[in-house]
């Protein structure tokens, strides 16, 4: 099973590559760090499985998903991203992805999801699946006609303030939504990483969540993020 990985985060890319190479029936044919590199790797032959991040240094991973889908419907494409909001999820699925995992997924979950993907399944992180089900069953859409819910998402009211967050917490929440890590946020704001982590914990507590992707999703639902 030929697998292609597209991920610009060095630590995650190396860890993911190690996971794939440890499986005897997986063959990692490339680990690209950008759209341009991924296109070069796949110019002659497409993989059986494409694992792609969305926030790449030279563009949106969704563009790559669409290009691959247009070339061949036989490629099993799965997004592995920090973004768990409806816009990213639906755009990825519309472009041709058949799986969607958040980056906080456990290693065994990632491997199992790849196998399920090839077997014809559509693995989706549980937190995203639950949110999608809630959206599909909400009063704004008629049960059994998910198109209504997807094409007409509930419009969040523009926030008048930062909700339950302090100015600093809200600032960090907005930066988290852009995909930056704690150490990057610390450098950006000229504060310690420990201080950033402390603020992130407060954000989690106030939103009753356990991961960055969940925090961004809930904040968007509350109308605190565009």
How would you describe the overall organization of this protein?
The chain has 226 residues and is of the alpha/beta class. The chain has helices at residues 10-21, 35-41, 61-71, 86-95, 107-118, 126-136, 146-151, 167-176, 182-189, 193-207, 212-221, and strands at residues 2-6, 27-32, 49-52, 55-56, 59-60, 76-81, 99-102. A five-stranded parallel sheet has the order 2-1-3-6-7, sandwiched between helices. Helix 4 (86-95) links the parallel strand 6 and strand 7 (99-102). Helix 8 (167-176) packs across helix 10. It is globular. Mean pLDDT is 83; it is low at 139-160.
Q: Residue-averaged pLDDT, rounded? A: 83
Uncertain stretches: 139-160
Shape: globular
Helix count?
11
Q: What Rg is obtained from the alpha carbons, in whole angstroms?
A: 18 Å
What string gives the helices and strands in order? EHEHEEEHEHEHHHHHHH
What oligomeric state best describes the polypeptide chains here?
single chain
The end-to-end span amounts to: 39 Å
Structural class: alpha/beta
Strand content: 5-15%
Q: Main sheet: which strands, in order across?
A: 2-1-3-6-7
Largest sheet: 5 strands, parallel
Percent of residues in helices comes to 40-55%
Query: How many β-strands, per DSSP?
Result: 7
Secondary structure elements and their pairing?
Layout: E1 2-6, H1 10-21, E2 27-32, H2 35-41, E3 49-52, E4 55-56, E5 59-60, H3 61-71, E6 76-81, H4 86-95, E7 99-102, H5 107-118, H6 126-136, H7 146-151, H8 167-176, H9 182-189, H10 193-207, H11 212-221
Parallel strand pairs: 1-2, 1-3, 3-6, 6-7
Antiparallel strand pairs: 4-5
Helix pairs in contact: 3-4, 8-10, 9-10, 10-11
């Amino acid at each position: 099973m030929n697998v292609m990985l597209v991920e610009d985060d060095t630590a995650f890319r190396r860890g993911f590559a190690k996971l794939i190479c440890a499986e005897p029936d997986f063959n990692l044919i490339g680990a690209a760090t950008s759209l341009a590199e991924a296109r070069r790797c796949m110019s002659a032959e497409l993989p059986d499985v494409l694992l792609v991040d969305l926030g790449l240094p030279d563009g949106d991973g969704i563009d790559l998903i669409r290009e691959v889908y247009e070339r061949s419907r036989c490629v099993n494409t799965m997004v592995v991203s920090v973004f768990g909001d409806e816009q990213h999820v639906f755009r990825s699925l519309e472009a041709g992805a058949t799986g969607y995992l958040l980056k906080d997924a456990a290693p065994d979950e990632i491997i199992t999801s790849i196998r399920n993907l090839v077997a014809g399944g559509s693995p989706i992180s549980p937190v995203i699946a639950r949110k999608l089900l809630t959206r599909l069953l909400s009063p704004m859409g008629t049960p059994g006609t998910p198109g209504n819910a997807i094409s007409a998402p509930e419009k969040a009211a523009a926030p008048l303030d930062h909700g339950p967050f302090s100015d600093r917490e809200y600032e960090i929440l907005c930066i988290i939504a852009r995909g930056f890590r704690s150490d990057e946020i610390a450098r950006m704001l000229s504060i310690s990483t420990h201080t950033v982590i402390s603020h992130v914990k407060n954000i989690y507590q106030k939103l009753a969540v356990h991961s960055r992707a969940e925090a961004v999703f809930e904040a968007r639902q509350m109308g605190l993020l565009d």
